[in-house]
Amino acid sequence: MNYSQTVAYLYSRLPMFTRVGASAFKKDLDNTVALCNALDNPQTKYKTIHIGGTNGKGSTSHMLAAILQKAGYKTGLYTSPHLKDFRERIRVNGKMVTKSFVTNFVKQQKQLINQIEPSFFEVTVGMAFSYFEQEQVEVAVIEVGLGGRLDSTNIINPDLSVITNISLDHTNMLGNTFGEIAFEKAGIIKPNIPVVIGERHPETDSVFIKKAKEQNAALLFAEDNLKVSNVSKPSTTLKLDIVQQNTPLLETLHLDLTGTYQLKNIVTVIEAVQELRKKGYHIADEAIYQALKNVKKLTGLQGRWQTLAKKPLVICDTGHNKAGITEVVQNINQTAHEKLHLVIGMVKDKDISAVLALLPKDATYYFCQPQLERALPAKELAEQATSHQLKGKTFNSVAEALAAAKTNASSNDLIFVGGSTFVVAEIL
């Protein structure tokens, strides 16, 4: 098989969560353990940092990888899902895994894959761990796929665990309350390994405190120690200071990820850096400054409050649950515009009503659906939107919806594209 045939095999033969949803989620680590045992457990050959949470774990992973890279470490980065290219999931110093490695890995492991019938995600985790070993990375930043306790990535023994936050998402698999979801996320807390929690929440703090105590793991709430101040948005960056216990720690930082929700993530990232320094990592302040100014360039991160065009201004964002859309709406409100146009599509297993309730009623809507089995049909989305006083038309594809929005919009209007990671993927 060549590369395109190999990726087609992975997509078609293996249960894939992004395509079919909960049925692809394996409720134990047996397949991952079997696969990594066959690979001689590559994940034990380098240092790792494990990053979970509901929202922000992708941005946090990319920021931390950029900092480690600028600090001189050969850095692996494993994230999911991808937006345009399967290889986005596996990077070393920002460069995607080679096509030849993907092809050879599947060819060599095909017999085992057919034997144990792993999910798509389980295979990609094994592939990433193996590639990082081959490339002799010094440290790999590993983003949790879904949950934590039963996630395939949870076979690593990291130097640091990070949990960004908890909000209601994937409730059909992780639980219907903040506490139940926190229990699953807390599953990445390991014996004697420090854990940084990005945000406090009255329903989750006790879950993390209990789990950390059981594991004898040092627990740090980032927002207790660090704050942002002097925030401004000059041009294409967020400008800010980081303050530690009322004392300036890092002044005049520039971050090229401009969504205001990144202010929470950056506090988590800097707290993680502080902990890594305690573990012996050599990370100079200058590495932090240089990395945060160039996260997108260093790591290839896309889809986070990303500007696609101007006049009219077109912005996309992958926020897709209640907490994520809350942040999106806040950023829309802070962005100067005359009329607002929203190109929106969603997948079936989200809390559709809760998201629609947050969206502005004074916008023109272009309802669409991404091209995957889990997509909520555009007509159904439009019908549900009507009960929330959201008005617009339906379109057969994301591209058609965006084209219509561009046709209707004046040069001083704002077009926002989102509602699902997969909607954003189709217009990048």
The CATH topology of the largest domain comes to: UDP-N-acetylmuramoyl-L-alanine:D-glutamate ligase
Radius of gyration: 21 Å
Number of helices: 18
Q: What would you give as the CATH superfamily of the largest domain? A: Mur-like, catalytic domain
CATH class of the largest domain: Alpha Beta
Principal-axis shape equals globular
- Stretches where pLDDT is under 50 for at least 5 consecutive residues are none
Question: What distance separates the N and C termini?
Answer: 28 Å
Proportion in helices:
40-55%
Number of strands: 17
CATH architecture of the largest domain: 3-Layer(aba) Sandwich
* Strand fraction: 15-25%
List the strand order in the largest sheet.
4-3-2-5-1-6-7-8
Instruction: Sketch the major β-sheet.
Output: 8 strands, mixed
Q: How many independent structural domains?
A: 2
Produce a short descriptive summary:
The protein is of the alpha/beta class and 428 residues long.
Keywords:
single chain; 428 residues; alpha/beta; UDP-N-acetylmuramoyl-L-alanine:D-glutamate ligase; 18 helices; 18% strand; EC 6.3.2.17; ligase; metal-binding
